[in-house]
Amino acid sequence: MREIHNLRIPEIALTKWRSISDLMAEIAGVPASGISVVEGDSIRIIESVHAPRRGGPGETPYKFQPGMKSYCAGVVHAREKLIIRDATRSDFWKDSDGAKAGFIAYAGVPIFQPDREIFGTLCLFDSKPNDFSGPTVRLMEEFADIITGHLELIQANLKLEETLKDVRTLQGLIPICAQCKKIRNDKGYWQKVEVYLEEHSQARFTHGLCEDCMQKLYGHEKWFKEPDKTDKDKPDKPGK
After folding, report:
1. What is the DSSP secondary-structure string of 50-112?
2. Which range among 92-101, 134-143, 190-199 shows the weakest confidence by mean pLDDT?
3. Do 151 and 189 share a domain, yes or no?
4. Which structural domain range is residue 217 located in?
5. How far is CA 234 from CA 3, 121, 225, 226, in A?
6. Are residues 38 and 131 in the same domain?
7. Is 90:84 a contact under the CB 8 Å cutoff?
8. pLDDT tens, position by position, 63-98
9. Domain check: are 153 and 205 in the same one?
10. With a threshold of 0.85, does the pTM exceed it?
């Protein structure tokens, strides 16, 4: 697991994202691809061996800080795709961080979380002019949707893990009154056992009395008595 955007992303998901990102770069015929993630006030490119880097291939990928001109930041702020054919022909983008690194063409689409908050971007970079025609951008959008689906499953699994953790904790630490057997809930109120269990499980209760409690409650009543077992041994009266 790796924590990204406050989520523990399984390595198998990261590996799959990296693989598809690299495959898209190969299909598009561009030298670099990457997935960027919003981290607080900055954006960091992750998960691609072809992502643009400063210096040698072993150095840390870009971390875009506020105020920097970056292609990915443009996608994040607009929450929509961005296509830059040739940054050198744009007064704004020619001084961007990507252009300075030698990537003058860019295609990026937003990646959303299940709640539609921005998660990051899926990016392609080229060192020569490129309008990214054909199905390239559409494929990027489809892949971004797949990542959103992965994030939804990851969030659901994390919630399930937390729920199971809470259940295990309740099983081990349930405060119960030694006298009346009521259970204290997490708000400090005492509840009947059946009420507490119904609220914390799928169990439902029907009520009755066991033999011991029936004897305790009604044993002194004239109308209540245990069946005389000796009657079973007596012969039937004539005529019956």
Report:
1. TS-BSSSTTSPBPEEPTT---HHHHHHHHTS-EEES-GGG-TTGGGSHHHHTT--EEEEEEEE
2. 190-199
3. no
4. 174-221
5. 80, 91, 19, 17
6. yes
7. yes
8. 555 556 889 889 999 999 999 999 999 999 999 988
9. no
10. no
